[in-house]
Amino acid sequence: MLDNSLKEQLLQIFQGLEADYVFDITVGAAHPSRRELLELLEETASCSERLSCRVSDGDGLQFRILREGDDLGIRFRAVPNGHEFSSLLLAVLNADGKGKNLPDDMTRRRIEALKGDIDLTTYMSLTCTNCPDVVQALNLIAILHPGITHTAVDGALYPDEAERLKVQAVPAVFYGDELIHIGRGTLAELLDKLEERFGTAGGDGVPVVREYDLLVAGGGPAGSSAAIYAARKGLRVAVVAERIGGQVNETVGIENLISVPYTTGATLAGDLRKHMEAYGIDICDNRKIERFTSDGSTKELHAKGGEIFRAPQLIVATGASWRKLGVAGESEYTGRGVAFCPHCDGPFYAGKHVAVIGGGNSGVEAAIDLAGICSQVTVLEFLETLKADQVLQDKLRSLPNADIHTNIQTLEVLGDGSRMTGLRVKDRATGEERTLTLDGVFVQIGLSANSALFADALETNRAGEIVTDKNCRTSVPGVYGAGDVTDVRYKQIVIAMGEGAKAALSASEDRIKGVL
Q1: What does the Swiss-Prot or TrEMBL cofactor note state (predicted)?
Q2: Of the residues 133, 285, 345, 439, which is catalytic?
Q3: Residue among 47, 284, 344, 472 flagged as catalytic
Q4: Where in the chain is the domain with CATH 3.40.30.80?
Q5: 483 annotated to a ligand binding site
Q6: Which has the closest alpha carbon to 173: 165, 164, 182?
């Protein structure tokens, strides 16, 4: 199952293990995936004398990971190959105190402060590119908190469970039968939801204040570029972000980063981190910024957990997020018929009729992909014409199971209380309203600037974007904007990097002139 090249890599990965680990497997003798699971785990274990397997007969298929005989609280009811093979490897490395995803002390303290015994289950797909991040984050939480267990379940192996829980999008995280989280998520986002749901043990209430020369809010291409350029000017810089890489983590392939013919979002995010680390920048990820304050000379970012980041200058590079429809029923049926990622959730709608809302490149590309597995794909565009590139429009129109409706406004997501059943829409030309019966809908209507925390202090435009001048200065002295959160015309990685560099250079110039 594992080729020789991969085994050589695993030998290197596992060579520094300091504890003994057991894959404790329970699987039915006649289970159709028994052989596949045993081959995967036995071949993985063969790459280190610190790893071994123990097999017991039983119902279903699952395994847990033991460290020196102790249960780590991590279980897989899956054959973790494909995208989830990295989750298996990281579970072992994290348990051994290794891995670049290990949190810093502040995040670790928040995890350890979670209240109660919590048993979480994540339903995932082996083809889902967003699922490993959620699985790995919750596995890490289980390792660090003795009262938390986490089970990763391949929905394809347990379809009856997925059907009973009305799982129509992955990853889907449950506490019992209660849905806790749906879709992509960072460690910071998941930890925030667990704190809200289960509570935390009280701390001493004294905030931790961290002082720097310059702060960068956001760790995507713009934020990373800004931090590097500022550090090259000799400034002490902190990047405060939920996730390094930001939105690029969700991009499978990148082919327009000049001088790099092809890379992936995950690779680029890792490269951004390495570049910042090379300049000694304090990378404070897994942080949720709750408040921004400024008394003129001092800017502060207040992060959840009691941290205050303070500096005379701030670059806001918080990026943008997928825009939602904002209509009745959308939130209620998200993950139960309303989806945003065709690559992750498309397989749940194989052979079914779905709609794609949005006629730009992302919407038309999603429709083309979905047409390969769905019985019918209906594209709904608010404007009079599609806005996608002509080559994409031509491809879409050539598909026999795709239909296009323009000048259509979505009014409501309809459902039966447990799942989405259709849309109520209006023809903007005639005013006629009608109901479309659908099995699912994929929302692809662009991005919304992540500016809410700063909107009261900084000038923003009607789209909620932070208004900047040609040198990235905002309406507040000492505060700069860069990337997709601003009113810069085009939202591209290479442009965001340039804007981040420009913002840092403007900040350096203002510092020299004493304009803060």
Answers
A1: Binds 1 FAD per subunit.
A2: 345
A3: 344
A4: 4-198
A5: yes
A6: 182
Write down the catalytic residue from 341, 374, 439, 510: 341
- pTM score, whole prediction: 0.80
Query: Which H or E run includes 88?
Result: helix 85-95
Which residue is associated with the tokens 């490897």?
A: 89
Residue 394 bears catalytic tag: no
Residue matched to tokens 């560099």: 501
Residue for token digits 């590309």?
Answer: 365
Which amino acid belongs to residue 60?
G
The C-alpha torsion from 429 through 432 and 436 to 440, rounded to 10°, is 50
4-198 architecture in CATH? 3-Layer(aba) Sandwich (3.40)
pLDDT value at residue 255: 84
Q: Which residues lie below 8 Å from residue 37, measured CB to CB, with a gap of 6+?
A: 25, 27, 61, 63, 79
Is 374 labeled as catalytic in the residue annotation? no
Helices (H), 113-263: 131-144, 159-164, 187-198, 221-232
CA distance 135 to 121: 9
Is there a contact between 426 and 408 (Cβ–Cβ < 8 Å)? yes
What is the topology classification, in CATH, of domain 338-443?
A: FAD/NAD(P)-binding domain (3.50.50)
CA distance 313 to 478: 5
Question: Which regions of the chain carry the CATH code 3.50.50.60?
Answer: 208-321+449-513, 338-443
Q: Is 286 left (phi over 0), alpha (psi -120 to 50) or beta?
A: left
Closest CA to 231 of 5, 485, 507: 507
* Residue 214, annotated as binding a ligand: yes
Please report the DSSP string for 313-374 in residue order. EEEE---EEEPP---BTTTTTBTTTEES-HHHHGGGGTTSEEEEE--SHHHHHHHHHHHTTS
Segment-wise mean pLDDT, segments of 10 residues, the chain, 516 residues = 92 97 97 97 98 96 98 98 95 96 93 95 90 96 98 95 89 96 91 95 78 98 99 98 90 85 93 98 96 95 94 98 90 86 83 97 94 98 96 97 98 91 97 97 93 97 97 98 95 96 99 89
Residue 366 annotated as lining a ligand binding site = yes
b/e per residue 209-231 (b: at least 16 CB within 10 A):
ebebbbbbbbbbbbbbbbbbbbb
DSSP 225: H
74 annotated ligand-binding residue: no
Judge whether 213 is annotated as a binding position: yes
Look at domain 208-321+449-513 and name its CATH class: alpha beta
Phi, psi (degrees; rounded to nearest 5) at 337: 130, -30
Task: Judge whether 358 is annotated as a binding position.
Answer: yes
State the Cα angle at 106 between 458 and 142, rounded to 5°: 120
* Active-site residue, 284 included: no
